Amino acid sequence: MDRELYGREAVLDESGLAARLTGLTPYGFASAGYEHGDDPPVTVFTGGRGMGKTALLKQVRNAYRGGTPLALLDCAHIEPPLDHGPGWNPLTGALAELAVQLSPRIHSARPVEFPRLALGLAAVAVTGWSQDDDDRARRDLQRLGPVLATVDEAKGAAGTWVSKVLAKLAATAAETTAPVAGLLAEATVETVLEEVFGRYQRKSKAWYGMYRNAGGRGELGLHQLAVDFELGGRRREEAEGFLVGALVEDVRRAYTGLTRRGTRRGRPLVLLDNAHLPLGRRLIEPILRDRSAGRRDQLVLVASSRERDHEGLRRATRARLPEVAHRAPCPRGPDITSGILAVELTPLSAAHARAVFDRYDPAGRAPADLSRAVHRLTAGRPLGVALLGRAAGEVPAAGRGALTPGALLDLTVELREDAPAVPVADTLLGELLPPGLRPDAAAVLAAAHDEESARVLARTRLRGASVEGDMALLVRDALRADGWPEGGGHFVADPLLRALLLHRLRFHDDAPAYAAWRAVHETLHRHHGPGPTPYRLRQELALGRTEEAVTTLRLEFPGPDVLGWLARLRLIASAPYPREKGRTGPDPRRATALGEDPGGPLPEGLDADGTALHLGLRRLLHAVWLLTDPLALPDDDVIDKLVHELRQLSGRHLTGTSTLWDAATHWPKDIRAWRSPAVPPGREDGV
């Protein structure tokens, strides 16, 4: 069943990018005009984790399955067979898998055969063979069966040819004192040609006459191919590139041979996920090189890359997703990477997030602002929007009205009917956190606001967590290499990733007193002491203590630097709230912000004016803390109270009246526009 994709119409519409590349409309397979003639670019969708690259490739696969030869390969998950010989590597395994996926019969066309690729894979399959590892060679040869079945289904699958190959290999080894890869390749290929290939298919051997030093003789080319493959290094790269070319040539012949002319519509489609990994480059570069040299083929190659600035994209034509909806020019230059169209996947809009929630909650039982708050938390990252929307839809209708983004992270979600529900926060974190990073260690560091404070946590809370060096720097570099943003007053800058890590820090502690959370924030509290600096006061709030912050704001309020005072208020109130999991009812900060709960006793020695100022600042701090919390929902009553308190302060200050009045005017606008309150007030970009 297709997953609903939002904001991806530029690819999947009937006149979208996929239709213009393949010449076929999705699902219906009606003819569509080719935008790039006989020279389609390699299209690479770029975007960070959770941006929907894999989902988009799967949707393209679903849209064209049965209408054109098609294959989807994840370059991150080519599983090595057990006890394989040196003739198998991720590239040969990937080519075999692509051939098998491309070969089935499709709409009104014969299956694609892969005789050239089969011969090349057979030539390298027994690299390094000796009679002492006969069983391993048998397994390596048997793994060629599915590719040979594309040439002759019955003979390729039967496997009787394997014993004959082994017998010939043994005879070849006995006749020479120093068996080499080329002789073994000749024996293997000769048997495969005799036992599996028909008369017409045997002619495909001639294609290898173009290989290095072959002089037009196919058998010599296959011999040299195996030798180069065994040599490794640059020679193996040449051999691998020629094997990629064999696959492309087999597909081209299926579309341009005399008996096929006019029988196939559209173009075949190869989808490569995680193509930024080395395997992706080894598959794509030979095709780009051949196209740059003027060779034309029929293959539409669509890939994904988590690295927008990957070195392989250095001369690519770049566009954002909406820009390719109707036209996607990709002028070819002298650099081979100019044959790439790099399309940056854009975040979902707030309207798309609303559509996701409407799909899972069609009756609208969830709060009206929930989808917009989730959009703010996830920054429109499709994975986060989709999973949180699904989680909301699985909550009983009577309980949806109390949902907040924070409450959604506490839930479990059923992703498959045949599997138990999984925790929302853990599932999202598992998808977003770079592989190799320890979630518990990253959760500790997520409490830091910069690299220095993260290193303090690494030294004090994560001693022995890594033998490779400073854990903070390891995490920083892993996030940086994975394309996550930096800065913004947080060591982990992305709001969704930071929220997930802090959720883990708060709730993955068996102790009921949230011992890990308290220990981490107490460490930061000491680090930022002893004076009441804004960062120390932020840690006070994270520990559930607000009075020192209110007192400091009261004492500093009369000073002349009102903008600095507002900035400190905003920074202190950016503290993560120490939520209690599963707590029902309104957020406790709301009652304090509205003055319904005094929020604790007053300091001693205050006169009436000081008391009023202290209570007003207590309400203001709780209002800003609640209204800027990405895990909470906006509250009109609290916004109105924010306006009231700022205007009251405007009347109290001797020199900052205008600035505080502007804050009362503009901060509510920022909050309702889902922006952080700007300093100075009225600047949409803040500071």
Short description:
This protein is mainly alpha-helical.
Descriptive report:
With 687 residues, this protein is mainly alpha-helical. The chain is 50% helix and 5% strand. The strands form two sheets. Strands 2-3-4-1-6-5 form a six-stranded parallel sheet, with helices on both faces. A two-stranded antiparallel sheet has the order 7-8. Helix 14 links the parallel strand 3 and strand 4. Helix 20 crosses helix 23, helix 21 crosses helix 22 and helix 26 crosses helix 29. The mean pLDDT is 91.
Radius of gyration: 32 Å
Number of H/I helices? 31
Oligomer kind: single chain
Structural class: mainly alpha
Which descriptors apply to this entry?
single chain, 687 residues, mainly alpha, 6-stranded parallel β-sheet, two-stranded antiparallel sheet, 31 helices, 50% helix, 5% strand, elongated
Task: Produce the secondary structure layout.
Layout (H helix, E strand, L loop, with lengths): L8 H4 L4 H6 L19 E5 L6 H12 L5 E5 L15 H13 L12 H11 L8 H9 L2 H4 L4 H6 L1 H16 L5 H15 L3 H4 L15 H14 L1 H24 L12 E5 L4 H15 L7 E6 L11 E4 L19 E5 L5 H11 L9 H9 L3 H13 L10 H5 L2 E2 L8 E2 H9 L6 H7 L5 H11 L9 H11 L13 H13 L7 H13 L6 H9 L4 H10 L5 H11 L15 H6 L14 H20 L8 H17 L4 H16 L15
Parallel strand pairs: 1-4, 1-6, 2-3, 3-4, 5-6
Antiparallel strand pairs: 7-8
Helix pairs in contact: 4-13, 5-10, 5-12, 5-13, 9-10, 10-12, 12-13, 13-14, 15-16, 15-17, 16-17, 19-23, 20-23, 21-22, 21-24, 24-25, 25-27, 26-29, 29-30, 30-31
